[in-house]
Every structure is written in structure tokens, then in C-alpha cells.
Automatic annotation (TrEMBL):
Protein name: HesA/MoeB/ThiF family protein
CDD domains per record: ThiF_MoeB_HesA_family
GO molecular function, a single term: nucleotidyltransferase activity
Domain THIF-type NAD/FAD binding fold, chain residue ranges per copy: 19-247
GO terms for cellular component: cytoplasm
InterPro entries reported for this sequence: ThiF/MoeB/HesA (IPR045886), ThiF_NAD_FAD-bd (IPR000594), Ubiquitin-activating_enz (IPR035985)
Pfam families: ThiF
Family to which the UniProt record says this protein belongs: Belongs to the HesA/MoeB/ThiF family.
């Protein structure tokens, strides 16, 4: 979402055809904004697979896929970009292969590293927006801080069993993730997770992304979207900045 003009962005006849149905939602201008946008997908597991899939289908300009793990059999119930033949392969490589086949217009950059204190700022600098496909709070807080420092939006998504939540963090406009949650929060090593619920929450995150970038639709800034798939209730919780937080 760089500030420079959209005049330098062209949509080919093939792109206009591919995106025909979504152009009815946000027009060629919205599509050009998507094409100009680069996104870091942090983690290419359950949430990250769905996020990367829909970001690629939407037609963003560049996706940087970061994950240090390899595909395991226990991933296959929900991490839809990884298939049986991919067991043992690095997740970003496995994902990149399918995403390029889905939409060759999108530049896919696989990074087979864990996100750490040492590389997080470098990674965030490569992109316009960060989207969370992680399964642990430690890395989320690292990303949240790095994105805040860089002044870039960070879309948090998380699931636990039937429940999930999405928060859009925009530096200077909304509270950050640390305003909401204690940074000592730890994640269990095995989170209960089924594909459809991961898809639901990942899809909400990419929908917020799409609205944020195209400017069409209401982005839920300063709110936490909470989904309970057990009952299929959805609610929004108003967020307040914490006074002693680094972001305020
Ligand atoms: Zn904060």
C-alpha cells in the first residue's frame, strides 16, 4: 500500500478476466491497490495456508511466506496447501508451488526460516502489511512490535478449538496486540484444530485485509472479532489502548 500513484500499475486483459467478479466489488482501482501490495504471511500452517491461498486468489502483488517447519502427517487435516506427497518438505516451498499454479501473476517468495528477534525487522521491512498465520503468542508479540515500529498494519488471527479471533492493528490508529494481552501469554504445544474452523478465521482475516487495502467496506479497527464456531456466534469486542503500553 505504498503512497505512490496507481498509474504505474496495469491490469492485463487476462487479469481483468480473472478478477471479473471481484472487480464488481471494488473496481479496477481496488484491484490495482491489491496488485501494488506486498504481504508477509507469518507461518504457513493452518491459518497461513488459507490466508496465503485467498491472498493469492485475490491477486496481491507479492507474498512473502515465512515458516521454519517441514510438513508432518498431523498437519494434513487443516493445512490445505500441504498434501500427502509433501510430508518432510519445508512448508514455504510446498505452499509456494501450489500458489504459483493458482495465480502466476503473484510473486511468491518462500523463506524457510523461523521468525526471531534477529530477522523480524528485516522481514517486516520487505512488505506493506503483515498477516498472522501463527500458532504461538511469543512470535505474535515479536511481529506486532516489529510491525508497530515499522508503521505497518498487522492483522492478527488465532484459533483454539472451535474459537477464533481476528484483530486489525494499524499503528497510530488502533491499540496494538500488547494492549490487549499480557506478553507473558504462552501457547500450548498442541492446539486443538480442525480445517473448517481454521478456514473460517483465516477467511475473516483476509476479508479485513481486502477491505483495508481496497478501501471498500468497513474495516474493524480497534475491535476484536470473536467467532465461536461451536454455536456459530460472532461478536465484536471494543478495544482500548493500555496506558503504559509501548504503542501509546
Ligand atoms: Zn499497545
Amino acid at each position: 500500500m505504498s503512497e505512490c500513484s496507481l498509474d504505474s500499475v496495469d491490469l492485463s486483459p487476462a487479469e481483468l478476466l480473472r478478477y471479473e467478479r471481484q472487480l464488481l466489488l471494488f473496481g479496477a482501482e481496488g484491484q490495482k491497490k491489491l496488485k501494488k501490495t506486498s504481504v508477509l504471511v507469518a507461518g504457513v500452517g493452518g491459518l497461513g495456508s488459507f490466508e496465503a491461498l485467498y491472498l493469492t486468489a485475490l491477486g496481491v502483488g507479492k507474498l512473502v511466506l515465512v515458516d521454519g517447519d517441514t510438513v508432518e502427517e498431523t498437519n494434513l487435516n487443516r493445512q490445505v496447501l500441504h498434501w500427502t506427497d509433501d510430508i518432510g518438505r519445508p512448508k514455504p516451498i510446498s505452499a509456494a508451488e501450489k500458489l504459483r499454479r493458482l495465480n502466476p501473476n503473484v510473486e511468491i517468495v518462500p523463506v524457510t526460516e523461523r521468525i526471531t528477534e534477529d530477522n523480524v525487522d528485516y522481514l517486516v521491512r520487505q512488505v506493506d502489511i503483515v498477516i498472522d498465520g501463527l500458532d504461538n503468542w511469543e512470535t505474535r508479540f515479536l511481529l506486532d512490535e516489529a510491525a508497530y515500529r515499522a508503521g505497518k498494519p498487522y492483522i492478527h488471527a488465532g484459533i483454539y478449538g472451535f474459537e477464533g479471533q481476528v484483530v486489525v492493528v494499524v499503528p497510530g490508529e488502533t491499540p496494538c496486540l500488547r494492549c490487549l494481552l499480557p506478553s507473558s501469554l504462552k501457547s500450548p504445544s498442541k492446539i486443538p484444530a480442525a480445517g473448517p474452523i481454521v478456514a473460517l478465521v483465516g477467511s475473516i482475516a483476509v476479508t479485513e485485509f481486502m477491505k483495508l487495502v481496497t478501501g471498500v467496506g468497513e474495516v474493524n479497527k480497534g475491535k476484536m472479532i470473536v467467532v465461536d464456531a461451536y454455536t456459530m456466534d460472532m461478536m465484536k469486542i471494543e478495544l482500548r489502548p493500555r496506558k503504559d503500553c509501548k504503542c501509546s
